[in-house]
Each structure stands twice: as structure tokens, then as C-alpha cells.
Amino acid sequence: MKVSGFRTRVVKLPGERGPLGEIPGQVNTEFVTLEVHTSDGLTGVSFAGYAGYAGSLTAALKATLDALCTQIIGRDPFDTEAIGNRLRTANGGGAPGGLVTRAAAAIDVALWDIKGKALGLPCWKLLGGERGRVKAYGSGHLWRHYSLAELVEWAPKLVENGFTSMKLRCGTAGASEASELERLRVLRETVGPDIDIMIDINQLWNVHQATKMGRKFQEHNLSWLEDPVHHQDYSGMARIAAALDVPVCTGEYHYGITPFRHMLEAQSLDIAMIDLFRVGGFTQFLKAAHLAEAFTIPVVSHLATELFAHAMCGISNGLTVEHVPWTFPLWKETPRVEAGEIVLSDRPGLGLEFDEERITRSLP
User: Fold this and answer.
1) Is 71:87 a contact under the CB 8 Å cutoff?
2) Which string of DSSP letters, residue by residue, matches 143-163?
3) Which residue of 30, 65, 78, 251 could cross-link 58, Cys pair, CB 3.0 to 4.6 Å?
4) Alpha helices (runs of H) in the chain, residue ranges in sequence order
5) Quick check: 167 and 199 in contact, CB under 8 A?
6) Residue 228 near residue 239, CB atoms below 8 Å
7) d(CA 344, CA 323)
8) DSSP structural state of residue 247
């Protein structure tokens, strides 16, 4: 079996707020879909994209993905390690980052989808999983621009939809300490003591702010404090982690696997968050997760819920999956949340099929 062709398309998904408020009107909803075809008639699917404000890079990402896909024609899709290494080395000089890694990651996921379909196994099983379900938390919600009234409105809906944990964003520019603490207090009061709450700062604080506020946050039974300072400030993150009882979670902004070594050696994290497309796909994710395991550090995922759940099922130190349904409209069916867990199907590969009717309507 050989790779015989591919197709990529830019898809602009609807940006209106969904039933859980998951599209806040401030994220890019353009993605590049990928289909990799084989000589045996199998097709592997995946996508690439930038969350946030990088919609202007979608065209460049598609061009990069097209260029890399032409380089895998004639290759055996089972050679994921060799293919990924070749793509990153030949096109990025061996230094992971940006468009090349994101495109190579999308290809890697599509190849794993093909492998699963060829063997008749779901990817979560092929990646080492014992069962196709893993704990998940509601994350594409409770944004820092939400008022207290909106937090009170939306948080219970997450619980009603099966979530036993959720993420709150803090770190608004100019916000007082009192107002930030009030957001957490109101959320905790709304959902009760049995719901796990994480707080994401998205690198908006300095070490002093993070340490001072973290000590106050942890009084409200916080599950973790995420990316309180710049992701490359290893020593600063280590100082925060040493000063707080609440775990420090970081890692989503890093490309490739090497930064995880530096963070682990610097003791700058208690929980490793890995981004599937920045790390380089399923193949590289497993390496980063196993590296964290050697340091007895748990792993959590970043975005790409319907893909990442497979990888998280396949590792022994997987803690929870970030549930962000921004790309769910791409698919005919998506994993459901049941008793606080993402439940995957037993269908071969990713178990996903593009919703052609919706995608056709969404082409720019």
C-alpha cells in the first residue's frame, strides 16, 4: 500500500455562539482539511489550523500542507516515524516550529487514520489504549470577557452536558485582584465543591503576580494554574511551581519535543499540556508523553478534542482531555461526553468522516 494522492480544502466554519457558548466570536474558525489517499482505496483524514487570530495564515498553511503532501506520494503510510522525520528535516532544517510542523502533524494524524483503517482498529487502540474513553473538561467556554452573570449562566450548562470539570480564563488587562478572585469565587459557588476548576492565564502575568494570585486562587480548591507567565520563562515558571500548592500546567505553546525536556529538567511544570499540531502529530506526542512519564508528570491535551482523545487514551499518564468543539462541525459524528468522559467509537482509524454537505457550504 502506497500514498497515491491527497486533497486539501480551506473551510470557514460558522462563528456563531453554540449551545454551550463555545464560539466566543474571538477565534479564527478557518481550517485546512486533509484527505490522504492510498493505492488500496483507503483515505486518511485530518485538519490543520490556527486558533486565535491567525486566520491570515490559513492560505500559507494550505500551501505548506500541499507542498509536504506531494513529498509523501509513493510512501508507505505505515512509515510514520520516517515520514515525519523526513518532512521536518527537509523542510524545516530539523528545527520544529510554525507552518512546517503544523502541516507535518496533520499528515501524521491522517497516516495513523489510514493505519487504523488498514488494520481494522480504532486509533486509540492502535496507539496503546485499553479503552476508548478518557476524562474531559469543558474548555471552549467561560472566557475572560464573560461577566459574572454570564459565568453563572453558562457554567451550569456544562455540568448539565456531562462535564465534571471546567476551565475559567483570568488575567484580563487592568483587572483588579479582587475582581479576578470574585470570578473564581462566583464560579465555585455556582457549580459547587465537587466540580474541578482550572484557571488559564495565557501568559498574561509576571512571576510576582502569578505567585501572589496563585496563593489566593488555591484557597478555592483549584485543580491547576495554566501558563501564568511566558512559556519560555522556565526559571520563572519553576519559581511559581515551587511557591504554590496548586499544580502549574504549561506546554501548549511549545513546538517539538525538546522543550519538554528542558521544562522537566528545570522543574517548571507539574502538569504537561501538549498541543497535537505543535508537537508534530500522534507520533511525536507519544514521545513527549513518555518523556513526561519518566518524570512522573501527568499529561493533558490542548485543542483538537476529537483527534487528541485517541492519543490520550493511549498513554498511562494521561490526565484529562481539553474539550473544545471548534472543529466538530467538520464531521458527521463526533465523540460524546458521558459522565465526565469523552467516549470514542470502535470504528477503524479516527472513526471520523467529513460532513461533505456542510463543508461544501463552508468553502470561502
Assistant:
1) yes
2) -TT--HHHHHHHHHHHHHTT-
3) 30
4) 58-70, 80-92, 98-119, 123-126, 148-160, 177-191, 207-217, 234-243, 258-266, 276-279, 282-294, 305-313, 356-362
5) yes
6) no
7) 13
8) P
Residue 290 CA to residue 288 CA, distance in Å, equals: 6
Q: Strand pairing partners for 45?
A: 35
Specify the residue for cell string 451550569.
156
Delineate the domains of the chain, giving CATH numbers in brackets: 3-120+357-362 (3.30.390.10), 125-343 (3.20.20.120)
Q: Select from 95, 76, 84, 9 the least CA-distant residue to 45.
A: 9
Cell of 343: 467516549
Spell out the per-residue pLDDT of the chain, length 364, in tens: 999 999 999 998 765 555 555 554 455 578 999 999 999 999 999 999 886 555 678 899 999 999 999 999 999 999 999 999 999 999 977 666 789 999 999 999 999 999 999 999 999 999 999 999 999 999 878 888 889 999 999 899 999 988 999 999 999 888 899 999 999 999 999 999 999 999 999 999 999 999 999 999 999 999 999 999 999 999 999 999 999 999 999 999 999 999 999 999 999 999 999 999 999 999 999 999 999 999 999 999 999 999 999 999 999 999 999 998 888 889 999 999 888 999 999 999 999 999 999 888 877 6
How far apart are the C-alpha atoms of 117 and 109, rounded to whole Å? 12
pLDDT at 174: 82
Burial (CB count <10 Å: 0-12, 13-18, 19+), residue 185: middle
Instruction: Give me 264's grid cell.
Output: 522537566
160 φ/ψ angles, rounded to the nearest 5 degrees: -60, -30
Pair 193, 222: CB distance under 8 Å: no
Cα Rg of the chain, angstroms:
20
Q: What is the pLDDT of residue 30?
A: 86
Q: How far is CA 2 from CA 37, 75, 77, in A?
A: 9, 5, 6
Select from 210, 245, 214, 247 the least CA-distant residue to 230: 210
d(CA 234, CA 332): 42
